[in-house]
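Bumping my old thread because nobody answered last time. Still need a sequence for this structure:
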């Protein structure tokens, strides 16, 4: 097990600009294979042009927290420099089957203003479904992140190195032979690290670009039947403390939605 140090504290403009530079504009994603799997023609408009922009809605309060179902136990390296900070004390995040409704489960580490990140104003009211676990305490997300890294197999490395078009084709037409992380908590932990500028899977042999990986992580974390919209991206990334807004949010939403639809088609 290896450890990856995670930055803590206030999201500075320099941090946000670093995250912005990670991503490039994406070309149109082909859903021909997906349309074949669904048995209907899917008309999908290309994502809005423009690089990912993480700085627009950064909170003054500072650093904010948070394949397939047959995968076995999952365990991984350290996402945060939080060794020894258990914070457990009987609190846990929402279950992975949470419907995204009702009171919040657990209490994540709060922002500098004393409020947990998911209680801050400006988060769109949108159905999150499984993505609601983004509200889990930071130590829960860290543990899920570690479990994800420990679970990566050679087959998963191959999948995460595919282009977005290829990943969509595999998910929609070759579902039974695809290995990837299905857990929403683990995918959100990987998404959070990616948006913070880390390359969590690089030491395991994954060299794919950050925007493709972010789309796969978000699409896999979501419910199969709950559409991913721009507001979904704005809400989830703000809860995680790495806000994505504007054209960047629309671009990530379009790519992640294509992944979600492919999973729905492949899963049946």
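Sorry it took so long. Here it is:
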């Amino acid at each position: 097990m290896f450890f990856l140090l995670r930055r803590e504290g206030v999201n500075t403009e320099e941090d946000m600009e670093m995250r912005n530079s990670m991503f490039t504009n994406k070309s149109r994603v082909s859903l021909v294979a997906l349309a074949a799997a669904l048995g209907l023609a899917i008309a999908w408009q290309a994502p809005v042009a423009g690089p990912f922009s993480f700085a627009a809605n950064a909170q003054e309060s500072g650093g904010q927290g948070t394949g397939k179902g047959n995968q076995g136990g999952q365990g991984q390296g350290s996402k945060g420099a939080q060794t020894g900070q258990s914070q457990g004390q009987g609190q846990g995040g929402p279950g992975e089957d949470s419907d995204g409704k009702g009171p919040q489960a657990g209490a994540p580490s709060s922002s500098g203003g004393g409020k947990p990140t998911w209680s801050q104003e400006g988060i769109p009211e949108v159905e999150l479904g499984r993505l609601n676990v983004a509200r889990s305490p930071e130590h829960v997300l860290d543990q899920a992140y570690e479990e994800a890294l420990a679970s990566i197999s050679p087959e998963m490395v191959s999948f995460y190195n595919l282009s977005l078009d290829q990943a969509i084709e595999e998910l929609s037409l070759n579902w039974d032979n695809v290995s990837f992380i299905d857990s929403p908590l683990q995918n959100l932990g990987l998404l959070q690290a990616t948006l913070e500028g880390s390359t969590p899977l690089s030491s395991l042999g994954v060299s794919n670009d950050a925007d493709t990986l972010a789309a796969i992580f978000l699409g896999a974390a979501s419910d199969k039947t709950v559409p991913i919209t721009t507001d979904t991206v704005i809400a989830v990334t703000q809860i995680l403390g790495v806000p994505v807004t504007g054209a960047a949010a629309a671009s990530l939403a379009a790519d992640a939605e294509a992944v979600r639809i492919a999973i729905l088609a492949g899963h049946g």
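The chain is about 40% helix and 0% strand. Let me know if any region looks off to you.
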